[in-house]
Amino acid sequence: MSWILYEDDLPAVAIGAAILGTGGGGDPYVGQVMAAEALQAHGPLEILEVDEVPNDQWILAIAGMGAPTVLFEKPPAGDEPTRAFLALERHLGVTSAFPCPIEAGGINSLIPIAVASQLGRPLVDADGMGRAFPELYMVTFHAFGQSGTPACITNEFGDVVILDEVHDNFMFEWIARGITIRMGAHAFVAQFPMQGKQLHQSAIRGTLSLALRIGKAVMEAGNRHEDPVAAIAQATNVNGYGRAFLVMHGKIVEVSRQTVEGFSKGTVTVKALVPNEGTLYIDFQNENLAVRNGSKEFIATVPDLITLVDPTTGYAITTERLRYGQRVAVLIIPAPQIMKSAAALHIWGPRRFGYDVDYVAMTAE
Amino acid sequence: MSWILYEDDLPAVAIGAAILGTGGGGDPYVGQVMAAEALQAHGPLEILEVDEVPNDQWILAIAGMGAPTVLFEKPPAGDEPTRAFLALERHLGVTSAFPCPIEAGGINSLIPIAVASQLGRPLVDADGMGRAFPELYMVTFHAFGQSGTPACITNEFGDVVILDEVHDNFMFEWIARGITIRMGAHAFVAQFPMQGKQLHQSAIRGTLSLALRIGKAVMEAGNRHEDPVAAIAQATNVNGYGRAFLVMHGKIVEVSRQTVEGFSKGTVTVKALVPNEGTLYIDFQNENLAVRNGSKEFIATVPDLITLVDPTTGYAITTERLRYGQRVAVLIIPAPQIMKSAAALHIWGPRRFGYDVDYVAMTAE
Predict the structure, then answer these.
(1) What's the gap in Å between the CA of A61 and the closest CA on chain B?
(2) Is B159 in Cβ contact with A162 (below 8 Å)?
(3) Alpha-carbon span A290 to A55, nearest angstrom
(4) Would you list the DSSP string of A244-313?
């Protein structure tokens, strides 16, 4: 059933989306400010469940793209994603399309709220990743054979580029990434135009509600001085996701990070607070990809959600904020079944990121 | 007055365009094949003078873009520039636009012939460079304040990208170059949409006729066993261009060349055949930019046309064909006045290419 999102919900959405963002998806604060400005101006926002979207209703997916680290130095003007949305509508010759998040995570759960609010249209409670992933073809929409194009890319200077047609979604990612790099390593994209009938088939459902639920649980645990990690575990156990579980309480002892080809790539090393409980190595490409132990054995990999949170507040630590000496709780949230089909693992399993291992499903011990 | 271009004229156009291409503009042979196929299929082509184009007639400029060296390994499919043209027309909501070359030189004098012929429309006898230059904003259209966008870029895989809006023409070049690099360092562009009234103001006139005239002169000199360099000198002396003059008969003793940022950049060293007549250094970025002598003093720079030709045939040697041991005649063709205004020198004078010298007009001694 459709529901109403209020400005007061945004802090919780931001907290939950950052946890689902598994280190990526951009700093949620920037998106929260954009969404709050829009809801202040236009009032509460109607959120539609996937099954409420009519078969012939047009949907455009909305995302920020690039290296999240760059957003600190290059804040958005605020209207880029809506301009991308409208330019793509014009190009397609459609009107009244509904926005949908491309991913659940960080800025990219909040930007679509700003877009829907600015347009005065409902937002779809779904996405194509069920978490954050670094590349545009890493979506269930692609797994179900949909083209990312026509798509539209904008930046804060008013530049508008339309990818009219590409021969496959890997080329879509390749060209869009090239444009994003030339736009200063961050841009906004409207993409994967589809109708309700395609959305029904391919969307990961209820991920905006899930972000809100996780965020509320973290905030309530904070108010009650309870363990936020336990609250996250309780909150994630819906929509097919598993209970989040703790792998380690530790301290960051090393961060290596580079901005490479428009991505923020690196490895963070976490040492257990309890002596002799070992070390974890967490690789990231915008998002956390894999956790290995001191013997370099894999503890968890994509598509399961690997999230570092502040152990006292439960707030996620995005990869651009990782720093030496930080206390962290390393959590795994088991992904739902739709993210672990053979077609889905082909898109975002560990081998796609260059790891020579098969995906092994994680469950709480 | 309008005139008719026949398939039999194409070898002469290719020879002349390569000479105006000043080492760049791409290997004319590839464009000649594309133009010949089109004229065989569709018959002779009507060529319009600038003043014959009505004020409200739409014009789109057509070009190959990227590192010409790449065309040897990655030949065009043949319909890319026409697809770019039609996609841009659709985007603009116009029909029946006329193609116009963006530059006079190499493949880019011949591709527009193929496009006009495939479309069944007349081609405009003009361009925006009066020679070949390496970057998209290096056109008189830019000097007269016209935007390069909306523009459309295509490649041989059917990928189509539309640059809808950019905040200036330097960003246009920067983004289009990024897309071209990701398309494999060569692509085709339809750009600078304008109407007849803008064309009348900003075009460099008669450069297709000039290419044909130069090419015919070279071919006739060859048939009569006369000096082709003298024939070129005679032929260039129209439309405000000066008589071509010879700087050196020499031998290539070194070629350094790299494909950098989507350009073919380097320096060729030419030693005089006659002992003690010295050495010339010719820098290029796709096109030849500057000639310096053994004391590194500038002999000539952009925008004057620096062309290396085979001294026996008079055929231009494009930068991708330069090789050790080759005999060459180094020619300078003084550019016409429209290419040497303050606004024009700001776009393509020696300082634009990083040389710390002002342009000094060349004339035959």
Answers:
(1) 19
(2) no
(3) 38
(4) PEEEEEEEEEEEEEEEETTEEEEEEEEEESSTTS-EEEEEEESEEEEEEETT--EEEETTSEEEEE-TTT
Phi, psi for residue B101 in degrees, rounded to 5: -65, 145
Q: Which domain holds residue A119?
A: 3-205
Is residue A258 within 8 A of residue A244, CB to CB? The reply is no
* Cis peptide upstream of residue A303 (ω within 30 degrees of 0): yes
User: What's B75's domain CATH number?
Assistant: 3.40.1610.10
Is B156 a residue whose pLDDT tops 70?
A: yes
Minimum-distance CB partner of A175 among B163, B164, B179: B179
Residues B335 and B262 in one domain: yes
Tens-digit pLDDT profile for residues A61-96:
999 998 766 777 778 888 999 999 999 999 999 999
Q: What does pTM read for this prediction?
A: 0.89
Give the distance from residue A230's alpha carbon to the nearest chain B alpha carbon, in angstroms: 46
Q: Is residue B93 part of a domain?
A: yes
Q: List the single residue in A152, A165, A178 with the smallest CB-CB distance to B160.
A: A165
The pLDDT of residue B70 is above 80 = no
Instruction: Compute the nearest-CA separation of A29 from chain B (Å).
Output: 28
Residues B339, B340, B343, B346, CA torsion sign:
positive
- Angle among Cα B191, B195, B196 to the nearest 5 degrees reads 120
Share of chain B residues as helix, strand and coil, in percent rounded to the nearest 5: 35, 30, 35
Q: Is B240 in contact with B333 (CB distance < 8 Å)? A: no
Please return the burial class of A59, using the count of CB atoms within 10 Å of its CB with bins 0-12, 13-18 and 19+: buried
Q: Return the DSSP state at A316.
A: B
Residue A165 Cα, gap to closest chain B Cα (Å): 5
Co-location of A250 and A125 in the same domain: no
The dihedral sign for the CA sequence B177, B182, B187, B192: negative
At A276 the pLDDT is 85
Note the pLDDT of residue A75: 81
B258 and B178 in a common domain: no
Classify residue A177 by its DSSP letter.
H
CA-based nearest residue in chain A for residue B84: A164
Number of domains in chain A: 2
Tokens describing residue A308: 């570092």
Give domain status of residue A219, yes or no: no
- In whole angstroms, give the CA distance from residue A223 to residue A215: 12
Pick from B91, B136, B159 the residue to mutate for testing the A interface (most A CBs within 10 Å): B159
Is A164–B152 a contact, with Cβ atoms under 8 angstroms apart?
A: yes
